Amino acid sequence: MALTHLDEQVLGLENFSGFDENEKVSFSSLSEMTGFPVDFIKKELLLETEPVSMVELRKSVLRYLEVTAESINT
Fold it and tell me: Which of 70, 6, 19, 47 is nearest to 38 (CA)?
């Protein structure tokens, strides 16, 4: 699933276009960057294996946002 420019803006990723799509990030790094506990990240983004690539992370975040938005609208 490719992200559109709007997706990148919504996710705050427009400034990260120089990152390698296959770059991997650990859950502890994500936790430090976001302020969310590792267990919360794994549970809410449905991620188990680390490190996770930027592509996998973006897909998981987008899926999380879509599911959350749908649950709010119903």
Answer: 47
Sign of the alpha-carbon torsion through 37, 39, 44, 50: positive
In a domain, 11, yes or no: no
pTM for this predicted structure: 0.66
Please state, rounded to an integer, the average pLDDT across all residues of the chain: 81
State how many domains the chain has.
Answer: 1
Helix or strand run (H / E) with residue 25: strand 24-25
Tokens 């990030």 locate to 25
Residue 49 has pLDDT above 70, yes or no: yes
- Answer yes or no: is 63 within a domain: yes
Do residues 1 and 60 touch, judged by C-beta distance below 8 A? no
What is the pLDDT averaged over residues 21-35?
A: 90
Domain limits for position 27: 22-73
